[in-house]
Each structure stands twice: as C-alpha cells, then as structure tokens.
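Feature request disguised as a bug: please show the residue count (239) next to ELMD3 protein in the output. Example input:
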Amino acid sequence: ISFTEALQHFQSAELSTSRGKVRAPGRRGILAALLRCLRGPPRLRPQLRGEQELALAMAHCALDDSERVHMRILQTIYRQLTRSRLGCPRYGAHWEELGFQGRTGSSPLPGEMPKIHSNLPCNLPVLSQLPQPLPLSFHNAGIVVVFQNFPFCIMSVNITRIVIQALQEERLSRECNRRQQVIGVLNDLYAAAFLRLSRLWEQQHGTVADAAFFLKELELSTKKKPRQLLKSLEAYLSR
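Example output, currently without the count:
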C-alpha cells in the first residue's frame, strides 16, 4: 500500500474511539499567554487544526486484524524493511527479526505509545530480548542505516511517540504554519530524528543499554530544536 492510499483510508474512517482519546492543548493563564506571545511558539493556525486532530487520532488507532488496510500496511512494513517481494504470515518469528517484542507484528504499537524511561531499568530487558546479532538496513527518505543489535521497531515507535507529543504540545506549530501542513512535518521530523539517532548510535557505539539515554536526547532535540533537526535532514539529503 502507498502512503497516500493509507492516509486516505484514515481520512475517510470515522476513528471516533481514537478521536475521543485526543487531548486538546491545555488552557493557559494570562501570564502564560503573555509569555507565549513574547517568546513562545505560535499557536497552530485554525485551518490546520483538523489535520492535527487526524494525526493525533491516527496515533491512537490500534492495529485491527479484521481491517484489511491495517494488514496491508503491516505487510508493506515487512516487505520494505526486508526488501522481500513476498508477503509473510500474520504470526511468526519473522516479526521478532524486525525488532517487535512478539511474533504478532503488533507489539509495540504506535497507538499504545510505549515509553522507555531513563529511570526505569525494567524497560531495558525488553530491548535485550531482541535477536542478537540483528543486522538491519533502514531505508527512508534516502537514509540508510546498517547496525548490529539495533532495536529498530522499539526505537521507531518511541520516535513516533516523541514526534506526536511535540505536536500535541504545540512545539511544531511554527514549522507547520510555515509549511501549511501537519502530517508532512511529522513525517520529515520522524526521519530527521531517526537520522540523529543513527549518528548518535554510530558515534557512541550504541547498544540497547544506551537506548533510554538516546531517546531522552532525541526528545529534547525534537521538542526544543525541531527546525535544527529538519535542517540537518535537508543537508544530509542534499549530499
């Protein structure tokens, strides 16, 4: 399935349950509003609110085995990452090879938004259960990363969580307003964050034990300096 077709599916779907989970930005007091006007990020333009709501609802949409489009998306992820021309069974060890926690291709899920806390070591055994070694090639927007022992899917889901949180906290409003789009900004920022992760992983010879530290750094960069991350991606792709 193409990205455009998948997006059109979610645009036409009701997503009432997922939309009910979307939290609007909290109301601010007069002082907070004044500080925002002076030096804070701008609010998202009204005409982009619908696209923001759709993106947040999609993030809360759980995988449904009975939904054909969901299954096509899952198959596409597998084929793109493995460069296989064939599909794969719905269940099996092949999902663990991509860094999922189980054999279903549905754990973790973007809708579940799992978080690896830097102060909770109980999360790290999940990472250590990934196949060792795990050679992996990641192709997205021209980025190619090949690493050993790289917890691809767990890091991918957490980067998704970070980007979605940045949108929800209106950290991306300036860039979304400038480009007059939301989902395009999210996609590019996701790729930019993964590029940043690949550089950290390579420079510091990362292991699964470093995952929480890297995610914390990515969260700070994504929320505090999204434009800098995007420029880094643009420079990388231009070369």
